[in-house]
Amino acid sequence: ATPASTSNILLWDNVGGGDGAGCVINPLNPDIQYCSSQEQVLYRTTNNWNNISSITPNWGSDTKPFIGVIALDPSSPNLLYAGTNYLWQYNATNNTWTSRLGNRTLAGSGETVTAIDVAPTNGQRLYTGSSDGQFWTTSNRGSTWTRLDASPLPVRAITALNVHPTNDREVLIGLSGTGSSHLYRASISAGGAVTFTNISGTGATGLPDFPLNSITRDPSDPANRIYVATDGGVFFTSNGGTTWSNATAPLGLPNVQCNEIKYVPGTGYLNVATFGRGMWRLPLPSLTASPSPSLRLQKVTTHVGGQYQVRLTITNGGGPAANVRITSATLKAGTTTRNAGETMPITVGAIASGQAVNRTVTFTDTGLPVGTAAVLTVTGTYSGGVFNYSSRVTLP
């Protein structure tokens, strides 16, 4: 199936088809989402699955994957990429497809593209990996391609790619199959030469010999803090892959195959999709020995006397006491953004480990209908760092 949580993470609906395959959410407008089912049947919604439309092109004679992958351009999320044995581009602005970018096959006979990533800071730079180990890049959105795979990169299915958030020439490569090495870092020089570094670790502190399915990074230290989902659970490193730790059973995750992992900065949570045991999340600081507190925010929204009142509960889930200040709070509905009525910054004060403090911020009601969807964003500081919380709100 293709389950989605559209308003409450405890409630899920099957919005697409089955078997469920690649899914993406527009980072600038989360009401725009895509999902897919077997053999690259693609669906799109522009209103959070209240309506759905098929955008499946005629794939022609391409080799279609049974379970396909899709990816959005983070800097231009109107552009969607989908893989066969070629790469295709969908432009949501005019609802058109560009087929077989560069007319370049990116996988061998009977094989398909199994991983796609677009550089966050440069939408011209894309990477693909295939089920037969081919690793390709383009610096002009697919007009021309360069094949990069070479020794010492093993010839195994490439199941995950993750481009560095600020360096479009550095990408992590995850491999399936069996063998002692499942994660590599590829660095491309200005002249086009590629260097592969095995960052799987070794021995008892290395990644175990499980197929690797997904990669994400901590944006505060993307070169060193890396998290991977494997057939044997979740593992993480805080030193760029020199050593790895088990983040599965020790942190309460079932000992289960994990197919997708993603850190969303606006929430502070690491999210994991498992094969058969549902969706899980974990506050990111819990994964490391960092002295930073594990701050979590929750909200309750009410409508009182012509104002929207948002009661924030700020919890220190672990670590040292956090001296917290709220530096801004906004409520965005449609194209209108409202700032909180309180004078900023708001000094919350010290929150001890395991304790919580409540603070209320208010926004003027300008006649929006009950049920209007909005986005609440709260930023602030604490001893040792900053936080940025963003959450969907249904106005009461």
Question: How would you describe what is shown here?
Answer:
- The protein has 396 residues and is mostly beta strands.
- It is built from no helices and 33 strands.
- The protein has strands at 3-4, 13-14, 20-25, 33-37, 41-45, 53-54, 70-72, 79-83, 87-91, 96-98, 113-118, 126-130, 135-138, 146-147, 158-163, 170-175, 183-188, 194-198, 212-217, 226-230, 233-237, 245-246, 258-264, 269-274, 279-283, 295-304, 307-316, 322-333, 336-339, 346-351, 356-364, 373-382, 385-394.
- The strands form nine sheets. Strands 28, 29, 30, 32 and 33 form a five-stranded antiparallel sheet that branches. It has a four-stranded antiparallel sheet with strand order 3-4-5-6, with no helix packed on it.
- A hairpin with a 2-residue loop joins strand 26 and strand 27 (307-316).
- The relative contact order is 0.07.
- The mean pLDDT is 89.
Topology:
Blueprint: E1 3-4, E2 13-14, E3 20-25, E4 33-37, E5 41-45, E6 53-54, E7 70-72, E8 79-83, E9 87-91, E10 96-98, E11 113-118, E12 126-130, E13 135-138, E14 146-147, E15 158-163, E16 170-175, E17 183-188, E18 194-198, E19 212-217, E20 226-230, E21 233-237, E22 245-246, E23 258-264, E24 269-274, E25 279-283, E26 295-304, E27 307-316, E28 322-333, E29 336-339, E30 346-351, E31 356-364, E32 373-382, E33 385-394
Antiparallel strand pairs: 1-2, 3-4, 4-5, 5-6, 7-8, 8-9, 9-10, 11-12, 12-13, 13-14, 15-16, 16-17, 17-18, 19-20, 20-21, 21-22, 23-24, 24-25, 26-27, 27-31, 28-29, 28-30, 28-32, 32-33
